[in-house]
Amino acid sequence: MIHKLLLFLTLATALSLPRKEFRPRIFNGEPASKGQFPWQAALWIPTNTGLKFCGGSLISDTWVLTSANCVGKAFFRIRVLLGTLESTGDDPDQVELHSRLWIIHENFNPWTYENDVAVVRLPEAVVFNDYIQPIALMTEDVDEDSTVTVSGWGAISEDDVISSDLTYSNLTISTSCAGTDSTICAIPDGNSDSQNICLGDIGDALVLNAFTDPVQVGIASSYGTTCNKGGSGIFTSTAFERQWIKRVTDI
Ligand SMILES: *[C@@H]1O[C@H](CO)[C@@H](O)[C@H](O)[C@H]1NC(C)=O
């Protein structure tokens, strides 16, 4: 009995300590739980300079919304993971699909990031369940100072490697960053001064009412050098791109 208790205590200590000491930092985020962000997609994208990782969001049973910058140099096919907390694809509830069709905004400007939006078509309709659900898209401008949430597998430290576990952060809509007409910005909310999107988060959904009535307001587009320094994350406005999305996907 004492033996078992000791083992239990050792295990409990081993399991709880790392979380306290190495608090995940998706940009200083919190670990996501299963089914919390069921629209979240992981995209593994082959390019001529190697395999690239991006996020995306499921907007119907056959389309994933992401950044043009992510799929701009893709070739062959894109590996799409849905229903997973693991970027590496080790989740028993995940669905893995390979897409050969993606559409990039024809007016995407790779220098200014204007119209940084793309859609990836799944080869077959995915079945929705507790871990896989589409997200609604915002059609109106989001108010300044709104609290929004971004989830993703972006780098959680200065190491510049993507995270294996999905994390999320609450941010605040801000007008503090310069951008194009298609851009919205989000800064850390009051709870942390250093959380934001980072390497591997491009394409992730920025979501209003993420925990009650989720609506996607932005697509992670760029973070400059600010990942760990509390600066602005730059997102493409889904309201601004709503008509383009409708035109190419009929959603
Ligand atoms: C994010 O906001 C939600 C809703 O207000 C809250 O429940 C949650 O604790 C917040 N998470 C963090 C990491 O601040």
Automatic annotation (TrEMBL):
Xref: PROSITE patterns: TRYPSIN_DOM (PS50240)
GO molecular function, one term: serine-type endopeptidase activity
Swiss-Prot/TrEMBL GO biological process terms: proteolysis
Keywords, sorted A to Z: Disulfide bond, Signal
Highest taxon of source: Eukaryota
The keyword Magnesium appears for this protein: no
Signal peptide: 1-16
Coiled coil: none
Protein name: Peptidase S1 domain-containing protein
Organism per entry: Zophobas morio
The organism's taxonomic lineage, starting at the top: Eukaryota, Metazoa, Ecdysozoa, Arthropoda, Hexapoda
